[in-house]
Design goal:
It is a single chain. By secondary structure, the chain is an alpha+beta fold. It is built from four helices and five strands; from the N terminus they run E-H-H-E-E-E-H-H-E. The chain has a five-stranded mixed β-sheet. The longest helix is centred in the N-terminal third of the chain and has 15 residues. The protein is globular and about 35 Å long. It starts with a strand and ends with a strand.
Length: 110
């Protein structure tokens, strides 16, 4: 399992990988566009994006936004491959200790 952080401006191939995982996660359902984030390329292109790869395949990702206080990191959009590797999101959350924020929150507003 390989964990990486992508910084804006993201490349086209990166968005293709993210979109593939997002579409699999949605499973032909329509994006709800409320609560926790939704897949919006322009918005994601301004975000840090944590990724987890297993055997060279993107298994999951989460968009991350630092708060103004520099102690809080917001997890916005989270997506994983259905039936993918166990503990993909568990690999993403501890990265805040490395990055520096002392608090992590999951955003929940439109």
């Amino acid at each position: 399992m390989i964990f990486k952080i992508g910084h804006p401006e993201h490349r086209e191939f990166f968005f293709q990988e993210l979109n593939e995982v997002s579409e699999l996660w949605l499973d032909k359902k329509k994006e709800k566009k409320f609560s926790v984030g939704y897949f919006d390329r322009d918005y994601l292109n301004q975000s840090l994006i944590a990724t987890v790869h297993v055997d060279g395949v993107l298994e999951g990702f989460a968009s991350l936004r630092p708060f103004y206080d520099k102690e809080t990191l917001a997890v916005d959009l989270m997506r994983i491959r259905p039936h993918g590797a166990n503990a993909v999101m568990d690999a993403i959350f501890p990265w805040g200790d490395f990055y520096g924020p002392r608090k992590m929150v999951i955003r929940n507003f439109p």
